[in-house]
Amino acid sequence: MVCESWKAKLDTYLDGELPDEEMRSFDAHVRSCQSCSADALARVQMKRAIQVAGRRFVPGAEFRKKIQQSVVRKPQRSFRLGWMFAATAAVVLVVGMLTSAYLGTRPGRDQVFSEIADLHVATLASSSPVDVISTDRHTVKPWFQGKIPFAFNLPELQNSEFSLVGGRMTYLDQTPGAHLIYDVRKHHISVFVFQERSLPTRLDDHSLSPRKLPFNMQTWSQGGLRYFVIGDASASDIDSLAKLFKAAS
């Protein structure tokens, strides 16, 4: 019963829709409460399963043609009515094209950011957040060989406040990648690395505008790889770790 008030707002928390102060309180509670962390993990996994299932069906050309034929009106005898119908159809077509173009870019990017945040939360809520546990980059990097179709470099952390916890394989819309976890002053930071060309959505570093997330995040492309650095650490810490990765690459 102690956690009922927390669980009542769990979905709102996972969607990043709570005020900043409540988000910080939730972050601390989820990390310390085994029951709520397990519930959060289950809901994130269900959310991702629904997203994947929703993308399995894509209407083909034949299906679209059949629907169009069922809704298109028969030609009218009146030239005026026919012209008005054609003009209306043209307007609808243009609006539809603009809407499709918009939906194919911004929401696509926002969905990528949302899924990255989900992966970060799910990992921290897991009882086994990493598959290879080591503070040594020369141990963690070779572990990924043969597991993902690319290679990447890990930064040297000497004389920095960051410490490497370990790593694991991960997937973004069925695209395999690497997930590294770092600690800085009791904050956990996730670093995701994927092949740029394998991602379902094209990301432009000059026009990225993530939706409001309960975390600080940076993302960039370098050497054909797409990097995401995300966590509840300060923006300056996220930036510092991102700079270390950029220098290492």
Describe the structure.
The chain starts with a helix and ends with a helix. It is globular, with a radius of gyration of 23 Å. A six-stranded antiparallel beta sheet has the order 1-2-3-4-6-5, with helices on both faces. The chain has nine helices and six strands; from the N terminus they run αααααααβαβββββα. The chain has helices at 4-7, 10-14, 20-32, 34-54, 61-71, 79-103, 106-125, 137-143, 235-248; strands at 132-133, 163-172, 175-184, 187-195, 216-222, 225-231. Helix 4 packs antiparallel against helix 7 (106-125). It has two domains: 2-54; 105-248, MucB/RseB, C-terminal domain (Phosphorylase Kinase, domain 1, 2-Layer Sandwich), CATH 3.30.200.100.
Write down the domain tally: 2
> What is the top-level CATH class of the largest domain?
Alpha Beta
CATH architectural group of the largest domain = 2-Layer Sandwich
Radius of gyration: 23 Å
Average pLDDT figure: 76
* Uncertain residue ranges: 75-79, 83-107
Helix segment tally: 9
Global outline? globular
Ends: how far apart? 49 Å
> Element order, helices and strands?
HHHHHHHEHEEEEEH
CATH topology of the largest domain: Phosphorylase Kinase, domain 1
Binned, the helix content reads 40-55%
- Percentage beta strand: 15-25%
Strand ordering within the main sheet: 1-2-3-4-6-5
CATH-wise, what's the superfamily of the largest domain?
A: MucB/RseB, C-terminal domain
What is the β-strand count? Answer: 6
The chain-level structural class is: alpha+beta
The major sheet is characterized as:
6 strands, antiparallel
